[in-house]
Amino acid sequence: MICRALSSGWDELLALEEGERLCSRGWDLSLLLFFPNFYRVGMANVGFQSIYRLANAVPGVACDRCFLPDPSLQPLLDRGEELVSMELKQTPREFQVLAFSVSFELDLLNVIRLLLWSKVPPLARERGDNEPLVIFGGIVPSANPEPFAPIADVVVVGEGEEALPSLLRVLLEEGETRSPRVFQRLAQVPGVYVPSFYEPQYDAFGRFVSVEARADTPLPVVWSFWQDFSEEGNTVPLVTPESSFPGVYLVEVSRGCPHLCKFCLSSHVCRPLRVVSRERLLGYLDTPRSRLGFVGTSLSHHPHLVEAVEEAVNKGKSVTFSSLRVDSPLPLLRVVSRESGRVTFGVEAATEVLRERVGKPLPQDLIMERLLYCVENGAEVLKLYFMVGLPGEDEEDLEALVTFPKRVLHLCRRHGLSQPQIHMSLASFVPKPHTPFQWCAMETRDGLRDRMRRVEAGLRRVKGITVTWEGPKWSLLQGLISRGDRRVGEALVHAWTSFGGNWSRALKFCNVSFDYYLHREREEDEPFPWEVVDTGWRRELLWFRGVSSRK
Question: How many CA atoms lie within 13 A of 120 on its CB side?
């Protein structure tokens, strides 16, 4: 029995959407696209909406959507009521393909729950011939497919806009989704990883050694890049007030980043830097919508962004940004500060020395000058992101996390400026695959918690500064999923099938150790599970870039 309350909730959300609803009522291949988080998060994700548009543009394909249900509805699903899709009002088992767009490591937990609520076995090996084909895509499973491998039938590695049309054409040509011939053909599509064709190898002590591939199967799988991004561009087909960016028409301005901060996954895998053409960027301003949101990993590197923002303002439109670099062009900072009243910067480390070590060499004086400039030009809120537990971090760096925001307020007073609100967000450093820090150890839970509490205590009584931080418990799980192998995925499935969602107990039961996966430095020649994927980086170069930070 479908969950009627969920179906009604979808109808209420559909009624608020503006734009082009794309799902066809007739099809040769039906696909249900999941965003394994809440609706407001998924509809603010340009990549998710891009795949929705792209899949529906393939003749013969109908692509519907589904999201993590509201917490108030989840007990109904736990009691046996079934998920239902937004537009077609079908259960997931009625679709031929279930596709998950995963942007955050912790959403793997939600994927498992969604499959259970869909009445689809979460382990790929337990699915029968009549079950839907389960596909994963997004930066998280692309960077390291192995924790997803026990669950996935197929993983799209890299940018889905490049590989997905070819994958869907194979399924349309075959007229089925789970035959051996289908899997064999899918494994030959560039950027497609079929986990069942690969077998991880472990030594006598349970340490990962290598991956062996079936004959005529590519190893490694090469990351796919959307070749036509600059010309075609990317926008959301649907706008809703229930998004995390309410009523904002989101436009992807750039992909890739030339700065290559040593901790950053996206800059190392989403290469090269690509920006939409000037004509297409300015053409976005012709939308009848009054609110625009420019997103991208390196917005300030678009040579015509300032021109586009000023033109948008002249047309009476408001413009928001996902985040900017502190060293962005002054005209851009001026417009953003004046129009939105708030700016968001990733400072990452509070000392110049540590920023240099992690590959973000911004002088302290420059940062202070730019923050003051934003306040002078109307910014009332400064949102600053920092990381705790970075390689090479010492006592001076921790103390600087307390003095840094205080100095900003002091300089504002000294220059006769109104005092801004400083929102300081602390995140735990997680060593990501395919980066120079992939050999680094992650700080322990107690160590991270103690450091964050010290910063919070040092700023608790300072008016105008608020400090928020993510619990280290969840950061460690993020690290485990980011850096794990198939045993991690198996254990997390057991968390929901055998331990009532208690992933900590499941990890212990399955002998999955944080010490092994996270809390140890790796040797230069140690193999990694994620090297089943080739992002184009030579291992030697990553090691060379990272070793200086670990001395």
Answer: 28
> Phi/psi zone of residue 138: left (φ > 0), alpha (ψ -120 to 50 degrees), beta?
left
> What pLDDT is attached to residue 26?
78
Q: Please give the distance of CA 239 from its chain centroid, rounded to a whole number.
A: 20
Residue 70 has what pLDDT? 96
Which two tokens mark 210?
Answer: 């290598």
Residue 502 CA from chain centroid, whole number: 24
**What is the rounded distance in angstroms from the CA atom of residue 345 to the CA atom of residue 375?**
13
Q: What is the pLDDT of residue 21?
A: 78
In this structure, are residues 314 and 339 in contact, taking their beta carbons and an 8 Å threshold? no
- Amino acid letter at 448? L
What's residue 551's pLDDT? 56
- Give residue 300's pLDDT: 84
Which residues are bridge partners to 321 per DSSP? 294
Instruction: In whole angstroms, give the CA distance from residue 2 to residue 4.
Output: 6
How many Å from the N-terminal Cα to the C-terminal Cα in the chain?
A: 60
**Residue 81: its pLDDT value, please?**
95
DSSP string of 1-30, one letter each residue: -B-HHHHHHHHHHHHH-EE-----SS-SEE
Per-residue confidence (pLDDT) for residue 549, from 0 to 100: 65
d(CA 195, CA 181): 15
Instruction: Give phi and psi for 423, each to the nearest 5.
Output: -105, 110
Q: Which residues of the chain have pLDDT under 70?
A: 549-551
User: What residue segments make up the domains of the chain, in order of their start?
Assistant: 4-222, 248-483+521-550
CA 85 to chain centre: 23
Whether the Cβ atoms of residue 29 and residue 61 lie closer than 8 Å to each other: yes
- What values do phi and psi take at 356, rounded to 5? -60, -40
Using alpha carbons, list the distances in angstroms from residue 537 to 78, 269, 546: 44, 9, 13
Fold classification of 248-483+521-550 is pyruvate-formate lyase- activating enzyme (3.80.30)
From 278, 210, 228, select the one nearest 54 (Cα to Cα): 228
pLDDT for the residue numbered 321? 84
Report strand pairing: 274-275 vs 291-296: unpaired
Extract the tokens encoding 301. Answer: 């590197």
How far apart CA 221 and CA 214 sit, in angstroms, is 13
> Residue 384: which H helix or E strand, with range?
strand 381-388
Angle (CA) 143 475 539, round 5°: 35
